[in-house]
Amino acid sequence: MASLWRYLLAGLGLAALLAGILAVVYLTAPRSPQLAGPDTSRSKSTANGLFVASFEPERGVIRQGELQSWLLTLKTVAGAPVEGAAITISGGMPQHSHGLPTSPQATNYLGDGRYRIEGLKFTMSGWWQLRFAISAAAGSDTVIFNVVL
User: Fold this and answer.
1) Which of 6-10, 29-33, 45-49 has the highest mean pLDDT?
2) Rounded to two decimals, what is the model's pTM?
3) What is the count of structural domains for the chain?
4) Cα–Cα distances in Å, from 93 out to 15, 33, 81, 144?
5) What digits encode the pLDDT tens for the residues 108-122?
6) What CATH number is given to the structural domain containing 43?
7) 80 and 14 together in one domain
């Protein structure tokens, strides 16, 4: 009977040791950038580095469930405004595998590289992606902005 207790205690000790090792490995493992959430910066270089794009709600507040206008500002890498750009917008919710509920358009050039984007509607909370395809004198490029509600 004493031998059985020794085996039982040895087994419990071994299980506790393994649990401790697993805890140390889990707690010290490097975190994946995806766990931190999407990049929600409002200013970034385009994919091929042709432009610097900034994106913000025209009225300063992101509103869920309402049509709204945003401003896309395009500058060259040297800081000059990008004029006469052709812009197309697509996107959706990557975690839900669906597109945008509306068809946003670049409607007005406001000067100084600023373009009004109208027709954006975020129908639910969560992670939204907006992809801008930009064609201008300097070439064609894309930029993706993440919006989390």
Assistant:
1) 45-49
2) 0.75
3) 2
4) 43, 19, 30, 12
5) 999 999 999 999 999
6) 2.60.40.1940
7) no
Same domain for 46 and 19 = no
Q: With bands split at pLDDT 50, 70 and 90, how would you rate the model's confidence at 31? A: low
15 in the same domain as 72: no
Is the same domain home to 16 and 78? no
Residue 144's contacts (CB-CB under 8 Å, 6 or more residues apart) are 47, 91, 129, 130, 131, 132
Q: Based on the fold, state whether residues 24 and 46 are members of the same structural domain.
A: no
Contacts of 136 (CB under 8 A, 6+ apart): 50, 51, 74, 82, 83, 84, 85, 86
Could you tell me the residue range of the domain that residue 72 belongs to? 39-148
What pLDDT is attached to residue 21?
76
Work out the percent of the chain whose per-residue pLDDT is above 90. Answer: 72
